[in-house]
Inverse folding.
């Protein structure tokens, strides 16, 4: 059975390195793979499982532990053939979530055809993807400045049928509810007696540390 806390990162360039560092900071266990051992060096003090692989066959990835991962992200850039091969092999090994970096529209189409989710190659996206992956109830977020964000979160059932004033998220977590998305419609006029319903998505704002604390509480 796949371990949802175990992440495989194949290809440690700028994007893969950013992703590995951010997922590690979120408390996730990482298997980092690259054919160049020097690419793994920046992670030697933070990531326990560093592997140098010349070939990305199904057998070598299986032996590396990729089949046990809940999520695999293929971050190989210029070598499109290796990128597609590693992605396909991860999918065929039964990994529940496989993401792959694409460098062109055509590349994206191929990755989508074989069943992967496509991500963009910027370093900033590594941080964003890490945040999204590591918080299962977090749907999207927007960073404003260095330490302030607006985040969409699907509420845990423990918040259902409670009013905004009863939840008191501002006092408990230092975050504010700025909108609610219900039945694909956004409600921006949030009052103290507004009730949170099942399947509501709340949009909260606050500093990143407080938002992270709330995300952890919401995901339990």
């Amino acid at each position: 059975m796949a371990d949802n806390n175990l992440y495989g990162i194949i290809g440690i360039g700028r994007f893969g390195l950013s992703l590995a560092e951010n997922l590690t900071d979120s408390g996730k266990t990482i298997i980092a793979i690259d054919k160049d051992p020097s690419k793994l060096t920046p992670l030697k003090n933070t990531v326990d499982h560093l592997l140098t692989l010349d070939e990305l066959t199904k057998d070598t990835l299986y032996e590396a532990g990729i089949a046990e991962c809940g999520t695999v992200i293929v971050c190989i850039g210029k070598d499109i053939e290796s990128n597609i091969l590693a992605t396909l092999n991860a999918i065929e090994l039964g990994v529940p979530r496989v993401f792959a970096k694409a460098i062109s529209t055509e590349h994206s189409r191929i990755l989508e055809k074989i069943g992967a989710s496509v991500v963009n190659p910027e370093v900033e996206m590594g941080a964003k993807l890490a945040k999204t992956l590591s918080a299962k109830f977090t749907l999207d977020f927007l960073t404003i400045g260095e330490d302030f964000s607006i985040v969409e979160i699907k509420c845990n059932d423990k918040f259902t049928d409670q009013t905004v004033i009863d939840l008191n998220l501002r006092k408990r977590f230092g975050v504010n509810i700025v909108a609610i998305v219900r039945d694909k419609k956004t409600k921006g006029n949030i009052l103290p007696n507004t009730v949170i319903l099942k399947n509501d998505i709340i949009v909260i704002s606050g500093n990143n540390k407080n938002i992270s604390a709330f995300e952890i509480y919401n995901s339990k």
Notes: Residues 103 and 158 are 41 Å apart (CA to CA). Residues 3-134 form a domain with the Rossmann fold fold (CATH 3.40.50.720). The chain has two domains: 3-134, 138-219. The chain is about 35% helix and 30% strand.
